[in-house]
Automatic annotation (TrEMBL):
Species the sequence originates in: Agrilus planipennis (Emerald ash borer)
Top-level taxonomic group: Eukaryota
InterPro entries: PLD-like_dom, PLD_domain, PLipase_D/transphosphatidylase
MF terms (GO), sorted A to Z: RNA endonuclease activity producing 5'-phosphomonoesters, hydrolytic mechanism
PANTHER family for this protein: CARDIOLIPIN HYDROLASE, MITOCHONDRIAL CARDIOLIPIN HYDROLASE
One Pfam entry name: PLDc_2
Name of the featured protein: Mitochondrial cardiolipin hydrolase
Stretches that traverse the bilayer: 6-24
Any one GO CC term of the record: mitochondrion
Keywords: Hydrolase, Lipid degradation, Lipid metabolism, Membrane, Transmembrane, Transmembrane helix
Keyword Ribosomal protein: no
One Gene Ontology biological process: piRNA processing
Residue ranges constituting the PLD phosphodiesterase domain according to the UniProt record: 142-174
């Protein structure tokens, strides 16, 4: 009786920790992949000063060309399956405008928070976005700047949620003349915080 039970008992006692260790090791590996693999940084500096024309002519001079960066941004926006939540101080780029309208027309939930002062600028695309039916909100004209520059994609989806944030306006100058950066990430803990802030602002604003 005793020996009949002892064999499975010994086996399960020795195998269980092994399975647990393998499981935890695998989980850590998956976590590391998600945390590090899809972080990408774009830096705009003096080497981009000739790239203004490249942005205007859709020409790519190098991997660090402003046009390469714009293509990266457009690819990011076009990858949205459910939502685009954009918070942007200044937006003048036609291709970004067109991509947002295209997404909106494909039943993607596009929402934009913009700066009220910047939106009055004739080169700004914010009023045009509004006229295409995209919901836009702005901060009260109280002297504060809606200075954020970030964009969430499919942020309620833990697996496919994405974010870019940084200092760069979506303008010709932002991508070619200023010294700025954009960070792309799929790290969910950051996405979650930006998403919470976006929803908070969206509730607060008219
Ligand atoms: C740039 O040119 C490529 C190839 O002709 C085209 O597919 C793409 O839509 C163009 N992009 C912009 C932003 O005009
Ligand atoms: C619009 O913004 C640009 C810079 O992006 C600036 O040069 C221009 O003076 C502004 N126009 C108006 C009417 O404020
Ligand atoms: C963004 O664009 C505005 C308007 O052109 C400009 O005043 C500002 O310096 C730009 N850069 C940042 C980081 O806001
Ligand atoms: Zn270039």
């Amino acid at each position: 009786m005793f020996s009949k039970l002892a064999v499975p008992l010994v086996i399960s006692i020795s195998v269980t920790p092994l399975i647990l260790v393998l499981y935890l090791k695998n989980r850590r590996k998956q976590k590391q992949v998600k945390d590090t693999d899809c972080i990408k940084c774009i830096f705009i500096t003096a080497r981009n000063s000739d790239c203004r024309n490249h942005l205007m002519n859709n020409y790519t001079c190098s991997p660090s060309c402003s046009m390469t960066y714009l293509i990266e941004i457009l690819k990011f926006l076009k990858s949205a399956k459910q939502t685009i939540s954009l918070c942007m101080y200044m937006l003048t780029l036609d291709s970004v405008y067109e991509t947002l309208v295209e997404a909106h027309n494909s039943a993607i939930n596009v929402r934009v928070i913009a700066d009220s002062e910047m939106s009055r600028n004739t080169s700004s695309k914010i009023i045009s976005l509004k006229s295409k039916g995209i919901p836009v909100k702005m901060q009260p004209l109280d002297g504060s700047l809606m200075h954020h520059k970030f964009c969430l994609i499919d942020e309620t989806d833990v697996l496919s949620g994405k974010l870019f944030f940084g200092s760069t306006n979506l303008t010709l100058q932002g991508l070619s003349s200023n010294w700025d950066q954009i960070i792309f990430t799929n790290k969910y803990s950051i996405i979650k915080r930006f998403s919470e802030e976006f929803e908070y602002l969206w509730q607060e604003l008219n």
